[in-house]
Design brief:
Shape: globular
CATH class: Alpha Beta
Strand order of the largest sheet: 3-2-1-4-5-7-6
Bound molecules: S-adenosylmethionine
Strand content: 15-25%
Order of helices and strands: HHHEHEHEEHHEHEE
Number of domains: 1
Distance between the termini: 46 Å
CATH topology: Rossmann fold
Largest sheet: 7 strands, mixed
Number of strands: 7
Structural class: alpha/beta
Helix content: 25-40%
Number of helices: 8
């Protein structure tokens, strides 16, 4: 299966589920259909996101003695990247099959992989993390529910904690029904409205599989 086929199938599944009023159930369906073959998972890159790796190196991040949380962990590469620089990492995903897959891929991992829904996350995670990493989860949520995604993410941060968001970026939503739907800077500004301070913004066309405009926004909780 090519990456384009995988994207096409993901869009079909998302549309099918949305027509039944279910914005999130298609992720589990996609992971089940993939049957352990990452070629079927359009966002599987077998390595931590290059914009995360670049930020960790640039900031000379040392995670030892600090806790990190990965939102919508997918197949776990970002979580493993954060564990490698010393963080005690919790990584969650709403899709049980993704979490089982992470545990199978990384049998000796120090990452705590768990099934959880961003919209009903454990209370104990509130204010508990020095670093929160979100990559491509918000953009995969339809507009009707994504506006509720910002607050729980901001709330995971401990005082002084850092949030790193990597997402496709756009100036305007041309087709609000198409997923993934890149984020605008106005949408990202919700994090500031929730009391975070933006400390950097990268707005660039970056390579990976397809050259696309991406944002890497970094925030600090006061
Ligand atoms: C587009 S994928 C990106 C995965 C990963 N962050 C990456 O960059 O490879 C979005 C992920 O978020 C998960 N997800 C979607 N809605 C979620 C929710 N409400 N709570 C937790 N995870 C969710 C999906 O199951 C999927 O693994």
């Amino acid at each position: 299966m090519t990456r384009d086929d995988a994207r096409k199938r993901a869009r079909e599944l998302a549309a099918e589920h949305r027509s039944r009023g279910d914005a999130v159930g298609w992720f589990e369906k996609l992971y089940v259909e993939a049957g352990g073959d990452a070629e079927h998972v359009p966002w599987a890159d077998d390595e931590p996101h290059p914009l995360l790796v670049d930020w960790l190196a640039r900031e000379q991040v040392d995670g030892r003695g600090r806790r990190a949380l990965v939102v919508g962990a997918g197949l776990g590469d970002d979580a493993e990247g954060l564990a490698r620089v010393g963080f005690a990492v919790t990584a969650f995903d709403v899709a049980p099959t993704a979490i089982e897959w992470c545990r199978r891929r990384f049998p000796d991992t120090r990452v705590d992989y768990c099934v959880a829904d961003l919209f009903a996350a454990p209370h104990a995670w509130r204010g508990a993390f020095d670093l929160v990493f979100e990559c491509y989860t918000i953009q995969a949520l339809p507009l009707a529910i994504r506006e509720r995604a910002f607050e729980p993410i901001a709330n995971f941060l401990a005082p002084g904690g850092t949030l790193v968001v990597v997402t496709r970026g756009t100036d305007a939503h041309l087709d609000p029904h198409e997923l993934p739907l890149p984020l605008t800077l106005a949408e990202l500004a919700r994090f500031e409205a929730l009391g975070l301070e933006r400390t950097s913004l990268l707005d660039a066309v970056t390579g990976e599989t397809v050259p696309l405009r991406r944002f890497r926004a970094v925030y600090r909780k006061r």
